[in-house]
Design a protein that fits this description.
single chain; mainly beta; Tachylectin-2, Chain A; 5-stranded antiparallel β-sheet
Length: 359
């Protein structure tokens, strides 16, 4: 008598057990010391806004902000940050690049200004000095795509080598991929094609119609899907947050939108991990994180909601078998409770047993 039906039943039961698991077995943890790969003393040429000699570095001097790290076609590692508080016209943002042969090298070499809104076509409709949160992915044909936002729109640059860039156009020949909504920003693209054939772009936006978002200053995370990076992109899906809203009596409440900013999602062993600044939510569904369990706090000393965030804008980088995590923090705060100047910082990231990590 054949055991095939019984064998299939066992497999189905095992699959159901895996799907019904309420928390992942493995969670991300920072597994090394931090090192700094870029500071805020970069040379922006005519757009420098540094303190004068002997002057204290203050919050309104030039800073780094959201960034992307990727490997160009020549094997070098690239860091591109949307720098801010410069002397550039308008809202004073543009893209600045650093380079290194290794992720582990401290203080990468400055390569200068990569792109400004003055480099863009007037047809693209950029707001002067508004160029936020670059994120680079590479398509199967080797083309690099640098997603970013300006004027409540999603746009992208394209490059054959990851170094020289030009403006990209969508499948219909338009510069704008889609509207991001009020204050739409911080695009991040996940390659989910191995699972469902889609790319997923996550971003932050404001929705004043959803009164439940009031404690978060009406800010939430949404996503769109597409089979091609050039689109067409779907209508937005509400993704939501795992991190609870900060109580209004906390001093930081005026910036309660921060947890929704700079979303970064990775797929690992059947789970999607959404990095909500320094905390991590986990879900089986890449389009549903509302109320998802928080499975990791990358900084054990960080006591949410009382504390100010130790750093911002997480990015996970894969280099062969090695995984890294990067954050930025500015000079008006002491990042990571040890480093005393602003910039971009890297550390190794490991996946460890959730049970062991809780002991």
């Amino acid at each position: 008598m054949s055991n095939t039906p019984l064998f299939c039943t066992v497999l189905i039961c095992m699959a159901h057990v895996l799907l019904l698991a309420k928390a992942p077995e493995m969670i991300p943890v920072v597994s090394s010391a931090w090192w700094q790969i870029a500071d805020e003393d970069y040379d922006a040429g005519p757009w420098n806004h540094k303190p004068e000699p002997g002057e204290q570095t203050l919050r309104y001097h030039q800073q780094v902000s959201d960034f992307t790290i990727y490997q160009s076609s020549d094997g070098m590692w690239q860091l591109v940050s949307a720098v801010r508080h410069t002397s550039f016209p308008g809202t004073a943002h543009f893209l600045f690049r650093w380079e290194s042969p290794s992720l582990s090298q401290p203080l990468w070499e400055e390569k200068g200004v990569l792109w400004t809104t003055a480099d863009s076509s007037p047809e693209a409709g950029y707001t002067e000095g508004v160029l936020f949160a670059p994120h680079v992915v590479r398509d199967d044909d080797g083309t690099f795509y640098m997603f970013h936002n300006s004027a409540d729109t999603a746009q992208f640059l394209v490059s054959e080598d990851g170094i020289e860039w030009e403006q990209g156009k969508d499948y219909q020949g338009n510069y704008v991929l889609f509207e991001t909504g009020e204050a739409g920003r911080d695009l991040m693209v996940l390659d989910n094609r191995a699972v469902d054939g889609n790319w997923i772009v996550y971003y932050t936006t404001i929705d004043r119609d959803r009164k439940a978002l009031g404690p978060r200053q009406f800010t939430d995370v949404v996503a769109r899907t597409a089979q091609s990076l050039k689109g067409p992109w779907s209508e937005p899906h509400i993704v939501g947050m795992g991190t609870p809203d900060r109580p209004r009596d906390i001093v930081h409440s005026r910036v309660d939108f921060v947890n929704a900013e700079s979303p970064f999602v990775v797929f690992h062993e059947g789970w999607y991990f959404k990095f909500e600044q320094t905390q991590v939510a986990a879900s089986r569904d890449p389009l549903r994180f509302e109320g998802a369990p928080l499975v990791a706090n990358l900084f054990p000393f960080f006591d949410y909601p009382e504390d100010w965030w130790p750093c911002l804008a997480p990015e996970v980088i894969q280099d062969g078998e090695d995984t890294y995590i990067a954050f930025f923090m500015n000079h008006h705060r002491h990042p990571l409770q040890s480093l005393k100047q602003g910039g971009v910082f890297l550390a190794k990231l490991s996946w460890r047993s959730a049970q062991k990590s809780s002991n």
